[in-house]
Amino acid sequence: MVRCAAALVAALGSLTLTSAFPAFNTPNSVDVDGNTCPLLDRNGLLCPVLCVLDFNDCPDAIRPPTCASNEQLCDDGTCQASCDAVVNPCLCGLTSSDVAAVYKACPAYQNTVTVFSYDPSIKEEQLAFVCAQEWGLVASNATLDGGSGVPSWSDQSTDLPMSWSDCPTPQEPELTFTEDFCIAFYAIIGAELVMYLLWHMYKTVRERHAASLRQVCSQLPSSLSVDSKNPAIGSGSEIQADIEKSSVLMADGKPSSFVSSGSSGANVASAAELPDGMLLLRGYDNNYVGMALYYLSLLSTAGWIVLLAIIVSDYYGKVKGGVAYGLLANSNTSMAVFIFVWHLGAVWMVAMLACMSRLRNYFRIECSPAQAHVVQVEERQEEMVMMEGTQNRLTLLVNRIREALVRKFDLNIVIESCAAQRLSPDDERVFIEYHCTRYVLSSASGQFQCHTFGLGNTHRAMLAHRGGLTTQQASDRGFYIGENFIRVAVPSFPVALLKEFLSYIYLYQMMCMWVWFYFNYYKMALVQFSVIIASAFVKVAIRLHSEYKVKSLAEHNSECRVKRDGKWAVLSTADLVPGDVVAVDAGMEIMCDGCVLQGEVVVDESSLTGEAMPVRKLPLKMDDMAYDAQQGASKTYSVIAGTRVLQCTGSIIASPSHSMPSLLSGKSLAEKQAIASASSDDEPETQILVTQTRTATDKGKLIKRILFPVRYSFVFDEQLRVAVLFLLAYAGLGFALSIWLMGHDMTSWLYGVFVLAQTCQPLIPASLTIGQSVAAHRLRRQNIFCIDLPRTIMAGKVQVFCFDKTGTLTKEGLEYFAVQEIQQASNGSSGASAGFAAEETDMSRLPNVAQVGLAACHAVTVMGDQLIGNPVDVEQFRATDWELMQGERDSELYLDTLISPFLESIDGSDKLGRRTVHVIKRFEFVHARQSMSVAVLDQATGHVHVYVKGSFERLKQMANSASVPSNYDSMTARWAREGCYVLALAHKDLGPVDDLAAVTRMSREQIERGCDLVSLLLFRNKLKEDTASAIMELKGGDTRTVMITGDTALTGVYVARQCGMVSPSARVILGDVDRNSAGAEPLLVWRDTADDSVVDDVDRLLRSERQDIDDAEKRLGNVVSKRTPSIELAVTAAAFDHLVATNAIRRYLLDIRVFARMTPQGKVECVQLHMERAVTAMCGDGGNDCGALRAAHVGLALSDSEASIVSPFSSSNRSIHSCVTLLREGRSGLATSIAGYKFLINYGTTMSMLEIVQFYFSVIVPQAVWIMIDSFITVGLCIAVTQAQTARKLAPSRPTARLVGAHTLASIWGQTAINYAFLYGMMGLLFRQSWFRCHEFDSRDIDTSLWWLLGDNYEAEVISLVCMFQFVNAAAVYNFGYRYRRAWITNYVLVVLYAGFISALSVLVLANPNRFSCMFRINCGNPDTLVDLGYAKPSWGISSYNSPAGHNVMPHKFRWTLWGLCLANVVLCLAWEKFVVLGPVGRAVKKLWVSRKGDSKLRVKL
Fold it and tell me: Which of 1185, 1106, 1111 is nearest to 1147 (CA)?
C-alpha cells in the first residue's frame, strides 16, 4: 500500500513544470512585416551582489560606507552595532568552515541598470556584464563576448579578489514518502480499510437471514371498532383483540399481499418493490464496535478537510518554521500531494453524502423490528412531474437514463430512522413515531401498525358516545393514537446550517475553494467563500422562519373541559382521544375533529378553508342517517381542528379578550379543577364528540403535507439535467484545453479546475429560484399570499383558468329579486293545471304558505346582530323581514322560533298582525340532493307544515306532478337566461300533530315526499365591477377562461356572456342528459340555449369552427379575435358525468365553456381533466371549491385570511384582477428566472473563453480584474437582473420555460458566438499592431504557477477589457423581455449599475494612466517608464511591472479602436437578442419552422 501510494504521488510529481507558450506561434519572433524581431532593451534591473576578499577591492560606486564610532562594518557591507546576527550573502548559506576563503559583500548598488538587446536565455550574463561596466570593472567599449571580468562564485575560490554572489541553485529537498507523517497516513488509511472490511464481513454473516425479518406496513390506519351500544368497550383486551384481527388487513378491510402474519417476515429487499402507501420496516440493534466505526467515519471526513488545510497552510509556509513547503519538501511534491488528497477526499465525501441516510444503520446489526432499538422506515416517493408537455426527445432520453439509475440505486427511497419507544421502562408495549403518526407493535402478530378508532357511521351511533370515556379507556386509546399534539422539530441555527452544507452543491463549491486557496487565489476565494456563507445563512434563516411558523401553527396546546369517568375535568387538549366529549365555549380554538352532540356552534373556518363567512354547525339528530365528516350533509354537524368558536349555545359571543384558554391560563391545577367541579353540576349546553386527533384531523393532514411534501419536478428540474450535461461536456473540453495549453503539468490541472468551476457555476440552480422569490415578494405587496414558492413560476405558464361563479366572478352573495308564485288548480276545475302568477318583489304580499316557507326554510342563525349562514339563506331571510328568536324556546323540540313583522292592513295581503312559527325539524342542504327541508309548527293553527327548498330541477322531480306548471321548464329557463339564480319551494300540510316527537323521528324521504310546488325564488347575481375587464385581459394574455359552477347552466351562460367569457355573438349549445322512460339508458342531448332546439351534429360544427380558427391563426391580428370561437359548449353535471363515463369528455373538454351544477368533487374532476391537457389554474372563494383549489396546478383562494392553507395562493383582495396580477407576476418571475439562468450560463461560457485564451498566451488577467468580475459585476448584475419591473398587461404569449429549448439556446449560444468572434478578432487586431509585435509577453522564463506575475502585458490587458464589456453587457441583453417585464429602462438598479460599469470600463480603455487604471494594472506602468512616455510622474504607489517594457499603455488611436469595437460588440449582442431572438427574425424563423415541421403547441380557444 505504501509503495502504491508513493508511486502514484511520485508519478504526479514527475509532471515537472515546463515552459508554457502559445502553441502556434513563438513570442517576439517576427514583426508585422515578417522580419525577425530585434532584441529589446530591458531597464530597471537590479545588479547582483559583488563579493570581495577585502572591502578595499569594492568598486567606488559600491564602496562600503564609513561606520560611526559605535558601529562596525559587517560582512554584508552594512554598518551595524553588532555583526552577530548578520547573514553574509557571499557564503550562499554555508558556514565559514565550509568554504576555502570567506568573501565579503559589497553594499548593494542603489541604482538600476538597463540591459540593451535583452536576451532571456543569457539574462544573467548580460546583467553581470552591464553592472561590471557601470562600476568600471570592464572597459566601456568591451563586448559581452569577453565576459564581465568577474568570475562566478565558488566555495573553493581563494586567490580571486572578487566574484559574483550567483550562488548555485541548491538541490530541492525530496520527499521520500517514508517520513513519519507519511507512514502515519498510510497506517491510518490502511487500518480504517481493514476495520471496515472486517465489519462488513461480520455484518454479512450476522444478517444472512435479515431479509426474512423485515416487515411491510401500510400507512392507511387499521380501524379499531368501538361498540356504540356499549361504549365502555374499547380498552384493554378488547382493543388487543381488534388489533389481532386487523394485523394483516389494510384500512379498507382487504388483506395485503405484502404483510404476513407471525414472524415469517416480508422478505422484501427494497421499498422500491412496494406499492404506494406501503412502508418497509427494518429493525436494527446497536453494536458498540459499529458505533465506534461510525464515529470514526465521521472523524475521517473531518480528517480529509484538515489534511487539505495542512497542505494549503504548508504552501504558505504556515506549518513548519515559516518556510514554504517545509512539510512537503518542494513545490512539485506539494502540488502532487494536494491533487492526490483532493481527489481522494472528494471521493470519500461524495460517498458519505450518498450514504448519509443509511450510514448510521450500516454500523448496526439488522434484526427483527419487534426486537429492535431502532426501526429504519423506507418509503418509495416518486416525483410528481409537472408540465410534461415541455419534454422533448433529449429530455426524455436523459430522464430514461436517470430513471434507470434511480431504479438501480434506489434513489427514490426516503429513509428515516425511528427509535423504538415505550411509555415507561416497565411498559412492554412498543411503538415508533414516523411522520408524526404512531405505529404500535402488536404483541400477537409482531407487526407495526397505525390505528384509528371507528366510533360509528350513523348519527345514532355517534350519539351513543355522549357519556364520554373512563380514564383507563382514554389512556389505552392514547397509547395507540398518540397525544393530540404534533411536535415539529425545528433544529437550532448551527444544526440547520450544518444540514444546509451537507449537499452536493456545497461540496462542489468547497472543493473549488480548496483549489483557489492552494493556488494563491485566496483573495477571490475569500470573496466567493463569503458570498456562499452569506447565502447559506440567508437560506437557513428563511427556512427556519418558515419552520417556526409551521411549528406555531402545529404545536398549539390549550386546556378544555372533558368528560372523564362521568365528570367534567380540565385537561390539556394534548390528552384528547377519539371518543372524548368536550365542552365548547365561545372563543376557544377547537383542537380536534369532532361532531356536535348538543347545542349549536358558529365557527370561523377561514384559516383552513378560506371561507370568509362564519359557519353554523348543528347537533346530530337521533336517527340512522349516515355520518361521514368529509362528505355531504355531515359537514353541517362536524367541526374541524384549527377553527375558532365564535358563538355557541349557552356562551357569550367570542371576543379576543374572552376565550377558554384565557379563562384557565395562569391558574393552578386546584383552581382549574375547582372551575370544572363548579360547572360539573350543570351539564354544558354545547358539547362535541372527538372523532379524530393529531394527524388524522384535516388540519393535521395539511400540516403533515407541509412538513413532508410530495417532491415536485418542474420543467426546470427536467431540463436542468440536460443543461448540466451540456455544461459538463463544455467544461470538460475547456479542462482538456487548459491542460494542453498550459504545458501538460500539474499547474495546468489547477488551471483546468478553474475553467471547470467557472463554467459549471454553482449558482445556476439558485438562479432559477430568484424569480420565484421576487415574484412572491411582489405578490405579497399586492395582498396575494403564497405558501408554495415554486407555484409562482407555474403561474407563468397557465393556459386555462377555471372560475367558480358565485362570490368569485359575481359579487359576494346574491341579491333578492322576486318570488313567482305557482298557483295550483282548484280541486273542482276540470282539466286545469297549475300556473305561474306574476313575479312579486314584496314578500308581504305573498300568501301565508309562501311567506312562512320563505321565512323558515333555511339554516340561518344569529350571532349578535349578524345573521350567519349560507349567503343565499341569509339574503332570503333578510328579505322576509321576519325575526329569528334563537335561544328563546318554549320547548326542547323547537330548533328555531320565528316571528313575522307587524303589518298594518295592506291591500291584497291576507296577513294581518304578527304570527309565530317554530322549526321542529331540519334537514340541511346536501349537494347530492340539491335540496334542504324543514318541518314548521304554526302556533296559531297547530298545523305542521313541511317545506322543501332546492334547485328547480330537483324539486320538479320531487314534487307532485300535478303541481308542476306545464311551462315550468320554459319559465325557469327564461329566468336563468336573464341571469337569475333560481330556487324552487315546495310545501305540504301534515295537519294538526299531537305528537311532535313523531315528526322529529321521520326520515328525510318521509318528510319530503308528496309536496306541491309553491313558488320560484329568484335572486340576481351581479358581476363584480372589474370582472369583465379582468376576463378580457386574461383572454388577451392567451389564457382560456372556464366557469365551473354549482348554479344552473343557463345562469352560468348568462354570466359568462356578461363577463366576456362567451362572445355576445357566439352560439351556446347546452349538453344535458335525457331519459325517455324510467330505467332507460341516459342519452346526451345538445340544445341551442337561444331557442331550446336540438342540435344533431355538434361534432361537425366543432370541426368546422376549429378549421376556421386554424385559418385565422395564419393571419396576423389580435390573438383574441383569432381564437374567439363562434360555437361554445356548456354542460350540466349529468352531462359531464355521462361524458366521463363514456370516455368522451376529453374530446369536448377544451370546447366546453360552462360546467354547471357541479358538486365539489365534480369540480375537482373537471380541474384534473384540464390539467391533463394544459397548465390549469383555479380561482374560488375557498368554500365548496377547496378540493379544486388544492388539485389545480395553481390555486387562488379569494379569502380574507392570509393564513389560508386551502390553496397555494390566497388573496385578501377579492377582485378577479388578482388572477391577472398572479399571472403577470408569474410570467415576470419565470422570465426573470430564465434571464438569471442565461446570465450565469453566459458568464460561464465567457469566463471559460477568457481563461482558455489567456492560457494560450500564458498570461493571467490581473487580480483586480478577477475581483471586479467575480465580486462586483457578476454578483451585482445578477441581483440587478431580478429587479426588472413586471409588465403592466398580460402579453398574448407565455415566456419559455425550456432551459434547453431552441429559444434559450439561440439566446445563450448566439451571445457566446458573438463574444468569441469579437475576442478573437481583437486579439488578431492586437497582433497586427507594429507597436505590439516584438513586445509580446514571453513566459518561457517565468514559473506559470506564479499566476499573479502574468498580467502586466498587452495580451492580458486586451482580454480583460473585452471580456469585462461582455460580462457587463450580458445583464442588459437578458434584461430584455418587455412582453413580460417592463422596458429595461425601468429597471433602475440595472440601469445605474450598467451605466456605471460601462463608464468605468470606458475610463479604463480611453484615459491616460491614472490612479483608477493603475489599480487594475491597465494602461499603466512603472513611474519612471511613464515619465519616459511623456506622462506626469504618478503620485501614488505602483508595484513594479513584470514585463520588459515596464508598462502596458496602449497608443491613443488603438485605445479608441478598442473602445469602438467593444461598443460594437455590445450593440451587436443587444441587436441579436432584440431583433433575432425576441424580434422579427426569430418570429420569421419560427413561422418557417412551423410551416415545415408543424406545431405541437397547444392553442386553446379564448
Answer: 1106
What per-residue confidence (pLDDT) applies to 712? Answer: 66
3-state secondary structure of 923: strand
C-alpha cell at 8: 502514484
Stretch 420-430: mean pLDDT, rounded?
83
Predicted confidence at residue 1349, as pLDDT, reads 66
Question: Could you report the per-residue pLDDT of 194-238, keeping only the tens digit for each?
Answer: 999 999 999 999 988 888 888 888 888 887 766 544 444 444 545
Helices marked H in 355-503: 356-362, 393-409, 459-463, 471-481, 493-501
Of the candidates 89, 91, 125, 94, the residue with the CA atom closest to the CA atom of residue 107: 89
Please report how the helices 1354-1373 and 1302-1326 are oriented relative to each other, as an axis angle in degrees rounded to 10: 160
Distance separating alpha carbons of residues 645 and 655, to the nearest angstrom: 10
Which residue type does 1024 have? Answer: K
C-alpha count within 13 angstroms, C-beta hemisphere, residue 904: 0
**Dihedral of the alpha carbons of 615, 616, 619, 622, in degrees to the nearest 10:** -90
Work out the burial of residue 933: count CB atoms within 10 Å of its CB; fewer than 13 is exposed, 13-18 middle, 19 or more buried: buried
With contact defined as beta carbons under 8 Å apart, do 1255 and 741 qualify? yes
Confidence of residue 541 (pLDDT cuts 50, 70, 90): confident
Report which residue type is found at 520.
N
- Buried-exposed string 332-361: b where 16+ CB fall within 10 A, e elsewhere: bbbbbbbbbbbeebbeebeebbeeeeeebb
Q: Whose CA is closest to 682, among 791, 589, 599?
A: 599
Q: Is the pLDDT of residue 1458 over 60?
A: yes
CA 329 – CA 336 distance, rounded (Å): 12
* Cα 178 to Cα 166: distance, rounded to the nearest angstrom: 34
pLDDT tens digits for range 741-754: 766 667 778 777 87
For residues 460-492, b (16+ Cβ closer than 10 Å) or e, as one string?
A: ebbbbbeebbbeebbebbbbbbbbbbbebebee
CA angle 1067-1073-1078, nearest 5°? 150
Amino acid at 891: S
DSSP, collapsed to helix, strand or coil, labels residue 624 as coil
**pLDDT tens, 1325-1381?**
998 988 888 888 876 655 555 566 678 888 889 999 999 999 999 888 888 767 888
Please state, in angstroms and rounded to a whole number, the distance separating the CA atoms of residues 313 and 981.
81
- Average pLDDT over the chain reads 80
1196 φ, ψ (degrees, to nearest 5): -125, 115
The Cα–Cα gap between 821 and 836 comes to 6
Q: Are 16 and 332 in contact (CB under 8 A)?
A: yes
DSSP 1300: T
Answer yes or no: pTM beyond 0.90. no
DSSP 1358: H
C-alpha span between 296 and 810 (Å, rounded): 67
C-alpha cell at 1296: 419559455
In this structure, what is the dihedral angle of CA atoms 1237, 1238, 1243, 1246, given to the nearest 10 degrees? 150
Give bridge partners of residue 898 from the DSSP assignment: 884, 917
pLDDT in tens, 1277-1333: 888 888 888 888 888 888 877 777 778 888 888 888 999 999 999 988 998 988 888
Instruction: Give the helix ranges, DSSP H, for 952-1090.
Output: 952-958, 968-977, 996-1000, 1004-1008, 1027-1036, 1049-1059
Whole-number Å distance between alpha carbons of 803 and 1035: 14
CA–CA gap between residue 142 and residue 430 (Å, rounded): 102
DSSP SS3 for 216: strand
Band (pLDDT 50/70/90 cuts) for residue 927 is low
Please give the Cα distance from 109 to 402 (Å, whole number). Answer: 70
Q: Which residue has the higher pLDDT, 506 or 303?
A: 303
- Enumerate the H helices of 327-457 as residue ranges: 331-354, 356-362, 393-409
